[in-house]
Structures are given as C-alpha cells and as structure tokens.
C-alpha cells in the first residue's frame, strides 16, 4: 500500500519513477485479475482543469483486454456527469480497480509535481463542489497555486504546465501497462474506446 509519492515532472527520470510506482501498485491487482479502469477527470473548457482529459486523450490507444479508459477531450468526465460515469463503471465491471487522474491546486513550490496515493481523490474540492470521492489509486498533478478565486486561477493556468504534467502522467501509465500487462491490444468497438457521452 502506497502512502504518498511525489514526483517532479520537470526532473529527468520522472516517467520511469511514475512507471515503477504504478507497477508496484498494480502487480497485485493484475494478479487478482481485477479489471483496471483509468478515470481521467476534468473539463476541456478550463486550461487548469484540462489535465485529466488531456491524459485520457493521450491514452486512448491504450484500451486493451484488462484496461478501460473513461474521460478524454471529446468525452470529458466532469462535475455534471461524474456520478453517472461512476455508476456505469460499477455496473459494467466486477470489483474494478480505479486509477483516478485529476488536476489539483497546491502550494507554489508544488506546481508541476505529481502526487500518487493509495486513496480516492476528491474531484471539484477546489471549487467547493460536493462530488463523490473516487479511485483506489489517485494521481493528481499540481497545475497552479491554491488560495482565493480558484475558478480564476484554473482559467489562468499556463497550458505549458498542464501539458508537461499530462505528458509525464500518460507516459508513466503507458510504460506501466507495457511492463505489467504487456503490449497486446484487443479490438474494442468505437463505443468502448471512446466511452459513452452521458
């Protein structure tokens, strides 16, 4: 069980670091033959909150036998449909292991860092939204500073920071899947690959 790992996305080797942390967490899950769902939360309507959909977009091709993906730029998972998507995941999969990915606001020195924890994340907390906690494992990228006027802060977040985090997170997940499950991909229908637009 992972307590909390912090990775600086600007450092060389951050992708390998993330790959190894995720692999250690996912080995027992894969051994137990539990389905793995990568749930990328956020909206493409706000730069700071687009981390999840960007990660989902970069991982669309990764869907395979044991891996499912929800949330990308075309079909984002956000405050308005999160509850429905969680219901759908629980109906579709038996005892799924959910890896939740989301943007987060934090302290100035943590901007650009990735936090990985064996606990659910609380989407929409910065915006005081009452949404259900989700995820067996959470991956959060610190996109900007927290404090007053969170909505404005998210809207005025640098795309460079978000893209850098999205690159490291998506590549870390990709290399973890190659390491733990392998490269064989099964053919999925368009519906399964892109998820349902709820």
UniProtKB/TrEMBL annotation:
Transmembrane regions: none
Regions annotated as coiled coil: none
InterPro entries per UniProt: Pept_HybD-like_dom_sf (IPR023430), YyaC (IPR009665)
GO MF annotations in UniProt: peptidase activity
Keyword terms of this UniProt record: Hydrolase, Protease
Matches recorded under Pfam families: DUF1256
GO BP annotation list: proteolysis
Superkingdom of this protein's organism: Bacteria
Keyword Protein transport appears in the UniProt entry: no
NCBIfam families noted in UniProt: spore_YyaC
Protein name (record): Spore protease YyaC
